[in-house]
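Q: Protein A?
A:
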Amino acid sequence: MSEERITTHRSASGRNGFARWLMVVIPVALGLLFFVPTPYYVTRPGSAIELAPMIDVEGGEKDETGAFMLTTVRMGEANLAWYLYAQLSPDAELMEKELVVGKGESNEDFTRRELAVMDNSQKIAEAVAFRMAGYDVKVENQGVWVMGTVDNMPAKNVLKIGDVITSVDGKKMSRKEDLLGYLSEKRKGDSVEIEFTRDGKKQKQTLVLDQLPQSKNAGIGIRPEDKQEIIVPNRVTISSEGIGGPSAGLMMTLEIYDQLNTEMDLTRGYQIAGTGTISLDGTVGRIGGINHKIVAADKAGAEIFFAPQDDQGPISNYEEALATAKRIGTSMKVVPVRTVEDALVYLRSQPLKKS
């Protein structure tokens, strides 16, 4: 009998030891999974958001029986858990951090750039839509927009994302070509006086040029874009709710134009999603993460999806979108577009959806 009690006691002691071991191992494992960083960002399907509640055009009409929707991608720094998830899920993708946030940039820099690019995309969408509706639109070049700074270069600790360079050494800089052309005549060690605006206030700084990485030229080390003032005749209010990036340009253009165009409901009663940048000439450009946007649109019940038919990669955005649509077995129609006019031609050809 005493031997049986000893055996039982040892079994209980073993179970208690195992339980204590688990109490130590499980928190450590969870800590490793959720708090150990990786050199990656993870992207996955976001959402499809109706544009009519977000956009108001003065003098326009919201008579849509269907809806235009922008699509988003969820993105965040990948801990070990997200890294493992991305290895297993076809709807998650890893990207090296330096492809998302430039070397030496902070997450705040990335956010500022994405919101600035979204603001510019909105203005271009307004210009294209109003021109298509027959209105005069005024476009003025304001200077060179700083969309990023290069690590260990002169501009790094002086200029910020969103600054607008208006002159160098007293010479007006209306476009990025003006700046690049002027600096191409300079050498490493030369000084230049930069005049720029930040949050509406003018500032001046003197920078000493350095050799640009992977280049024979000297420069200040920025990612330049053209900053333009676009003036449309009617006020447009867009509540983008913190959504960043340029990829909603096409769909915002369609929504604004539909509110201006009182002759026809362009949605024809359908749920229409899509993506693509928009240029002032109406060209629709390539975007990233279109596979995730197809999944998001399908989950939201979209019936039509506009995808850029671009020539900027091994395969076009449209081909990427079509492959994902086939993989998930959606009935959503994926439509290739090179210009906003392509989208309009397709929509005008569609029969009214029967309710």
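Q: Protein B?
A:
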Amino acid sequence: MGSSHHIYFSGPYRHQNWSFKNSYIDYILKHPSSVKVWRKMVQSCKYFFAKNSIVAFEQLFCRNEKWRVYLRNQTLKDIRYTSNPLKFWITANIELANCSVPPLISRIYKLNARFSDFSEQMLSYNEFLYFSANVAYLGFYNTIVKNDDGSIVPFEKLVEGLPKLKEAVL
């Protein structure tokens, strides 16, 4: 892939004097309509990123607890679970292979991934549904999905939870 980058924000920002009421700006800040709009807002004014630190990228990969995200052929490394309030907006693909899921879910702002690939995973049914809401293409290798009582979720129930599924490799 392309070059490696660290995600960071630095420098001061000033509260802006908007031509709109602050309540409108706050709503726009907390509810961006699309990734494209969010990126334009952040590029035009760092106030938006400082107040709502969302990083939008196309792909999230995790193999053996080593996380990588990709944005327009660039690899962003060193995504860590720190006190940094970064939130992730995943737009295209998520691939998990032998990774802890709960810390990731707490960091996701929106998940629009249409491609999901799970390998060597143990997921709860709720985690599976969370990652599969928009999935059209699913890869499923040596992965078990369990109910809250510890029982394995039947295949039919998994398929019912994938309303947009077009193709699966099991």
